[in-house]
Amino acid sequence: MTNYRNIIPGLALSLGLAGAAIWAADLPAMKSLGFSALTIAIVGGMIIGNTVYRFIAVPSHQGIAFSKQKLLRAGIILFGFKLTFQDIAAVGFSGVLIDALVLTSTFLLAYWIGRKKLGLDEQSVILIGAGSSICGAAAILATEPVLKAHAEKVAVAVATVVVFGTAAMFLWPMMFEAVRHLGISEFSYGLFAGSTIHEVAQAVAAGKSVSDAAMNTAVITKMIRVMMLAPFLIALSSWVAKKHRGNTHEKTGISIPWFAVAFLAVAGFNSFSLLPHTLVQQIIALDNLLLAAAMGALGITTHVSAIRQAGAKPMLLASALFGWLIIGGGLINMGVLSLLR
Question: Whole-model pTM?
Answer without folding.
Answer: 0.82
